[in-house]
Hints:
It comes from Buchnera aphidicola. The chain is globular, with a radius of gyration of 18 Å.
Amino acid sequence: xxxxxxxxPGQGVQYINMLSSFLKKEKIFRNVFEExxxxxxxxxxxxxxxxxxxxxxxSKYTQPMILASSIAIYKFWRKCNGKNPSFMSGHSLGExxxxxxxxxxxxxxxxxxxxLRGKYMQKTIFNKSYLVKAIIGLNENIIKKICHKYxxxxxxxxxxxxxxxxxxxxxxxxxxxxxxxCKKYGAKFIFDVNLNIPVHSCVMKPVAKKIENILKDIKxxxxxxxxxxxxxxxxxxxxxxxxxxxxxxxxxxVRWKEIIDFIQSKNIFTMLEVGPNNILTNLxxxxxNLISLNTSNKKCFxxxxxxxx
Length: 309
């Protein structure tokens, strides 16, 4: 047995026929997805299996789908008597998955929040053009200076994922111009991210206000397992502080690299990604100190299970 942290992914990990190796035989997965489907009035199992991809990528459906994926995998982990982690943390939307698994937030409440979160985010882009790009191999301070050129806050640093990867988002034209500047200053590679909304940017402030109002009626308890939040890289214990962090993370930078550094500072070097893909696992691949595992399919799940337990 070893100490480890559980990491929960956010939007962008979805794809047609994901979790197929689990959904064929494991009743836990069908039960979780049926509950989620009933709550948002959409057959998520059918959507995952048949698509279309355009609908899967619509935030109104994507966010409950990813939440349900992580919750189902965690429930299966516990059914197999998998040990609990020392820490949990979720990337953006994944923070809700972490709070549910840490028994701080009810699954049904999380579904309500994230389905509306996705719906409001999608509405923000109506008749407007936005872009999200990943910048590979350029210093964080240089990217900050480039973003600051746009004084109307049309380009934001959405997420600092690792030493090597930073995500920028905002107005389509300005993000494109900023990415050209990043290339000029030495970025090794730049690519579009699988998102059609300007995540973690100033554009999202009206959405944050709406989520703040929804959270007023939601009960959040102290997590049974410490959950490291996105905006402060802290493990909050009271409802007020947790809600505040959830509101702020909608428009503020996700400090993912600092979260991984924090976990390592606690002498924990094994990371388990609990979701339908391996994006967070890949972010750690250049860190020689880390053992990074994922649960994207049954083979990976049981390999990780043996390594940790």
